[in-house]
């Protein structure tokens, strides 16, 4: 494997994120292929026994088994790290594999975690159900309240875990404050950056230690594969994450890694355009509904914080139409926007969190998170925004709005 161009790392590592999205991490085989090659292989062969022994001893470079290294996966990992401004990255089989790995690799019985109240349903399950089973204490806080983070710290607090903007209520966390607080108290901050991606916000620029991804969302961007990633310092990845990952095996398939690698090439364009479409559609919907939760609109309580942390506010927002009947009537009248619980796709998608993504939670937990019976979440895609407006207009009317 070689790089026919881009071999001088003193030059290539300084390329800007938009260049890294297209070029970062590219290795080329002896064929000099333009597009990254897909290495669908679980293992490797060796020229002689000493070579194998040296690789297993860590004394020679080279791959030994795809749970440990794979060339296509390595290209994806290098590209994500370069775009993120992180020293290192490891790809995972899914977003939840990434979150589970990022937490379990560094936690032990007796540790304490402070997590955000508003979160992806399965992220809350990790905090509320899984970690306590292993003797790891957890506290959930209103992540928009800076003082709540401080007040929740205990002597054994090891990790802060949050997403921003958060699913599905679009709460925004003040990353400079919360990650700075963590750092000052020797706590590792783990940020789930699935909603924004490095194209719109880079948590490490605000002091985050670890950035974890569902790459299923905007990174793939076309609704094709499940994928995830965890970024951190070289030392943390090598010494904390890798021993866990190599022995438990939440690895991504090379095929899925290749799909995401190609998705990253257009991530910046898609994220910007979908954000613009989301703001336009939000402005159209706002006067028609009782409540809209959209970090890109001045009515959002944390609008200025979102604008300060993000280059654009992303494709996702939520609206509250006050009852399940109205919400279902609206969804059932859509002709263009698909009824789907996915996000980050180039297609516009809409869902009712209380009966889908957050249905497994208790009613009290939903109420505490602001997931009401009338809440709808929309992922705004790349369609002509005029067509989206017409579709929403028809659907809002069907819901009596
Ligand atoms: C989707 C999502 C996840 C889980 O990712 P999967 O790829 O579906 O496993 C985690 N966090 C957030 C914020 C998400 O949106």
Automatic annotation (TrEMBL):
Q: Its encoding gene is what?
A: metZ
Q: What is this protein called?
A: O-succinylhomoserine sulfhydrylase
* One Pfam family linked to the record: Cys_Met_Meta_PP
Give the organism the record lists: Qipengyuania vulgaris
Pathway assignment reads: Amino-acid biosynthesis; L-methionine biosynthesis via de novo pathway; L-homocysteine from O-succinyl-L-homoserine: step 1/1
- Role played: Catalyzes the formation of L-homocysteine from O-succinyl-L-homoserine (OSHS) and hydrogen sulfide.
The record, for Gene3D superfamilies, names: Aspartate Aminotransferase, domain 1 (3.90.1150.10), Type I PLP-dependent aspartate aminotransferase-like (Major domain) (3.40.640.10)
Q: What class of enzyme is it?
A: transferase
Mention any one GO cellular component term assigned to this protein in its UniProt record: cytoplasm
Region entry Disordered, spans: 1-27
| Superkingdom of the organism of origin | Bacteria
* N6-(pyridoxal phosphate)lysine modified-residue sites: 217
């Amino acid at each position: 494997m070689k790089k026919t161009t881009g071999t001088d790392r003193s030059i290539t590592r300084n390329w800007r994120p938009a260049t890294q999205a297209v070029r970062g991490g590219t290795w080329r085989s002896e064929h000099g292929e333009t597009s990254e090659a897909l290495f669908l292989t679980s293992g490797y062969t060796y020229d002689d026994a000493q070579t194998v022994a040296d690789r297993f001893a860590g004394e020679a470079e080279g791959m030994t088994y795809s749970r440990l290294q794979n060339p296509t996966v390595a290209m994806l990992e290098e590209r994500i790290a370069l775009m993120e401004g992180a020293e290192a990255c490891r790809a995972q089989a899914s977003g939840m594999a990434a979150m589970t790995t990022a937490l379990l690799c560094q936690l032990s019985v007796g540790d304490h975690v402070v997590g955000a109240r508003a979160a992806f349903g399965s992220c809350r399950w990790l905090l509320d159900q899984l970690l306590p089973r292993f003797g790891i204490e957890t506290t959930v806080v209103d992540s928009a309240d800076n003082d709540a983070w401080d007040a929740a710290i205990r002597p054994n607090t090891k990790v802060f875990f949050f997403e921003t903007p958060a699913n599905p209520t679009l709460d925004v966390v003040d990353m400079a404050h919360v990650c700075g607080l963590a750092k000052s108290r020797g706590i590792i901050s783990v940020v789930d950056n699935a909603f924004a991606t490095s194209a719109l916000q880079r948590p490490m620029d605000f002091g985050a230690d670890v950035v974890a991804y569902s790459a299923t969302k905007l990174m793939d961007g076309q609704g094709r594969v499940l994928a995830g990633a965890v970024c951190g310092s070289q030392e943390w990845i090598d010494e904390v994450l890798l021993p866990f990952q190599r022995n438990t095996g939440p690895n991504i398939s090379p095929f899925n890694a290749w799909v995401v690698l190609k998705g990253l090439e257009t991530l910046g364009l898609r994220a910007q355009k979908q954000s613009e479409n989301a703001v336009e559609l939000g402005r159209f919907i706002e006067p028609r509904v009782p409540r809209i939760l959209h970090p890109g609109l001045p009515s959002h309580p944390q609008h200025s914080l979102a604008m300060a942390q993000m280059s654009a506010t992303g494709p996702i927002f939520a609206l509250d139409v006050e009852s399940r009947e109205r919400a279902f009537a609206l969804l059932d009248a859509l002709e263009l926007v698909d009824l789907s619980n996915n996000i980050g796709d180039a297609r516009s998608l809409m869902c009712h969190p209380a009966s889908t993504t957050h249905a497994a939670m208790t009613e009290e937990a939903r109420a505490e998170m602001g997931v009401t019976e009338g809440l709808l979440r929309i992922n705004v895609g790349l369609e002509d925004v005029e067509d989206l407006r017409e579709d929403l207009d028809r659907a809002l009317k069907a819901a009596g709005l």
